[in-house]
Amino acid sequence: MSAEGQAPAPQPIEVPAPEGGTEPGRPGALALLKVFRHRNYRLFFSGQLVSLMGTWVTSVAQGWLVYTMTHSPFLLGVVSFAAQVPVFFLSSFGGMIADRVDRRHMLIATQGLAMLQAAMLAILTLTGVIQVWHIVALALFKGFVNSFDVPTRQAFTIDMVGREDLRNAISLNSVMFNLARIVGPSIAGILVAVVGEGVCFTIDAFSYGAVLISLFHIKVAPKPPRDHGRPLQELKAGFVYAWNNRQIRVSLMLIAVCSSFGAAYIPMMPAFARDVLHEGAQGLGLLLGSIGVGALFGAYALARIHDRHLTRTPIAAATLFGVGLILFANSHWLPLSMLLLLPTAFGLMLLGGSTNTIIQTAAADHMRGRVVALYAMCMMGMMPWGSLLLGFIADHFGVGEAVMLGGMVCILGAVAAYFERTHRMALDQA
Fold first, then answer.
1. Using alpha carbons only, what angle is made at residue 290 by residues 273 and 187, rounded to the nearest 5 degrees?
2. How many CB atoms are located within 10 Å of the residue 242 CB?
3. Cα–Cα distances in Å, from 29 out to 21, 41, 142, 168, 171?
4. What CATH number was assigned to the domain covering residues 27-220+229-429?
5. What's the DSSP call for residue 26?
6. Is the pLDDT confidence value at 6 over 60?
7. Average pLDDT over every residue of 160-169
8. For 175-228, what is each residue's pLDDT tens digit?
9. Close Cβ partners of 367 (under 8 Å, ≥ 6 residues apart)
C-alpha cells in the first residue's frame, strides 16, 4: 500500500475558528461576509447563484412535467434515481480525478456539459416530442456529469478561500444554494403555468453561461505536482482514510441513512402537491420555496455553532429532520405544510453542512477530493435508492405514508449515531 493509503490513527477534528467572530469558535454574521474578500470566491458565488436558480427552475418544471405525463410517484422516483445513481457509483472516481487535475478546468468541462443537457431537454420539450424515457436518459447523463462536478466543486472551495475561511465558505455556499431554492421554484411555478416547461429548461441552459464566465476569470495557484498511484489503489486509499477516522465514518453513515430515507421526500413533492394538497404548479413552487427558506436559516445557524458543539450537531439535526418529516407527512393544508417544511429543511441543511465541514476540515489536502467524494456519494448517491423505495411505497400505500416512514428511519439513524458517539467517548476516557 502506498504511503497515502496507510490508515492514520483517528484524530479529533479541529475546526479552524473563522475570523470576525464575537468569541473564539463562534463566528458572527460579519465573518460570513469576509469570505468575499477573496476575489475568486466573489466571482464563483455570483456565477453559481445565477446557475443554481436556473437549476431549480428546471427541477420544478421537470418534476411537474413527469407527473402530469404519468401521474406516477414511482416514475418521479425513477427520474430521481437516474439523476443521482451515477454519483453513487462514480463520485469516488470523480474525487480521485479532482485530486489529480486542475479543478477549475474540470469545472469548466462539467458545467459546459450540464449546459448541453439543459439545452437538449429544452429542444425536446419545445418541439413537442419529449417522452419520459428522454427525461430519464438526460437525467442519467446529468448524473454522470455531477459525479465529477460535485466532488470537484466541493474541493475547489478551499482552493479559492484557504483553510481558515473554509467553514464560512461552506455556510455561504449553502446560503447561495438555498437562496436559489427560494427564488427558482417561485419563478418556475409561474413560468410553468404561463409559458410551459420548455421555457424553464431554456432559461436553465442560458444560466450556465454565468458560472462559465466566472470560471474563466478565476485565477488560482497551480497545485504542486505529486506522484500518482494506480487508480484503484488511490480509490482504496480514500476509503481506508475515511473509514479509519471514526468521526468521519459515523458522520458519513448518518448522512447516508438520512439521505436514503429522508431526503428522498423532495422528489415526491409534485405528487404531494397534487394528490395530498390538491395544488398546482404554483403550490409546488411554494412548497419548494419553503424548503429553501428553512435551509437558509439552517445555513446561518451552521455558521453560529460553536466549534466544540460541531461534532454533536449532525445527531441533533437528523432528529429534527426526522420529526419534521413525520409532521409534514400528516398535513393536508398548504399553509401548514409550508410551515412544517421550515424546521424539516433546517434540520437537513444543518445535517449536511455540519457533516461537510467536519469532513473537509479533517481531510488532508492530498486526500480531500476523495473524502469529499465519499460525502457526495452518501449525500447525493444514496438518495436515488431511497427515491425508488419511497416511490414504490407511495404508489401502493400513499405518498404521506412513504414520507412518514422516511422520517422514522432518520430518527432511528440519529439514535444509533448517538449511542456510537457515547460509546466512543467512553472508550476515549477509559
1. 80
2. 23
3. 8, 17, 35, 10, 11
4. 1.20.1250.20
5. B
6. no
7. 81
8. 888 788 778 888 888 888 889 999 999 999 999 999 999 999 998 877 665 555
9. 4, 99, 237, 238, 241
C-alpha cell belonging to residue 51: 446557475
- Grid cell 397534487 in the structure block, residue: 274
Rounded Cα distance, 102 and 40, in Å:
15
Domain boundaries, the chain: 27-220+229-429
Distance CA 381, CA 259 (A): 8
Total-model pTM:
0.73
Backbone angles phi, psi at 278, to 5 degrees: 55, 45
Burial class (CB in 10 A: 0-12, 13-18, 19+), 58: buried
Q: Work out the burial of residue 129: count CB atoms within 10 Å of its CB; fewer than 13 is exposed, 13-18 middle, 19 or more buried.
A: exposed
Q: Residue 26 phi/psi, 5° resolution?
A: -130, 100
**Residue type, position 275, single letter:** D
Hey, what's the cell of 48? 453559481
